[in-house]
Amino acid sequence: MQPLCGELLNEALEKAALGGHLSVIKYLTSTYPSLLAQRGQPQPRLTVPLKVLLDAVIYNHFPVVKYLVPLFFPDPILPPTTLKSLGSSGNLMMVQFFYKRLKLTDFRPTLSNAVRDGYPDIVDYLHDKGIYQLEEILLMETTAQLL
After folding, report:
1. 111 in Cβ contact with 80 (< 8 Å)
2. With left for phi above 0 and alpha for psi between -120 and 50, is residue 66 left, alpha or beta?
3. Which of 63, 95, 66, 68 has the alpha carbon at shortest distance from 14?
4. From CA 59, how far away is CA 92, in angstroms rounded?
5. pLDDT surpasses 90 at 73
6. Would you list the domain boundaries of the chain?
7. How confident is the model at residue 103, as a pLDDT?
8. Burial (CB count within 10 angstroms: exposed 0-12, middle 13-18, buried 19+), residue 33
9. Is 129 left (phi over 0), alpha (psi -120 to 50) or beta?
10. Residue range 5-28: average pLDDT?
11. Is 94:64 a contact under the CB 8 Å cutoff?
12. What pLDDT score does 28 carry?
């Protein structure tokens, strides 16, 4: 078997993340050290596209996410579409994981989709963290004025 390189290696990682194949991702990152670069960090960091991580988030593969996040960067930046998918996933553990790691992230898109898709545990968790949708804030202010 010929070794994978460049785009083929990235494509293999993307497909493994998309399918939730943690063992394949671990195999690839251990077999192909070129995927990992030191970048002056105490531990190696992945040199592959962010899409690998985003696919794992969007398709609700939490074990893959937990493995990949520390390999990427200290504070991954998730686009709003991915944050929405996080709310639609119904996966409270993944929401909690990202909330603890991503301190400067706006989780309102996550809350919005959790409300829309009926995940009260995620809604309650984000409310407990002080995250509300604009409509909820206006309702609370109006209620307070009426009292």
Report:
1. no
2. alpha
3. 68
4. 14
5. no
6. 1-74, 77-147
7. 78
8. exposed
9. alpha
10. 88
11. no
12. 87
What is the Cα–Cα distance from 38 to 64, expressed in whole angstroms?
21
Q: Which two tokens stand for residue 44?
A: 């190696």
pTM for the model: 0.77
At residue 107, what are phi and psi to the nearest 5 degrees?
-90, 15
What is the rounded radius of gyration, in angstroms, for the C-alpha atoms of the chain?
A: 18
Instruction: Indicate if the alpha-carbon torsion angle 58, 72, 20, 118 is positive or negative.
Output: negative
The per-residue pLDDT for 77 is: 76
**Which residues have a Cβ under 8 Å from the Cβ of 69 and sit 6 or more positions away?**
53, 76, 97, 101
Contact 115, 93 (CB under 8 A): no
Tokens representing 84? 């929405």
Helix residue spans in 2-130 (DSSP H): 6-19, 22-31, 51-58, 62-72, 80-89, 92-101, 108-117, 120-128
Query: In 3D, which of 129, 77, 139 has the Cα closest to residue 108?
Result: 129
| pLDDT band, residue 43 (cuts 50/70/90) | low
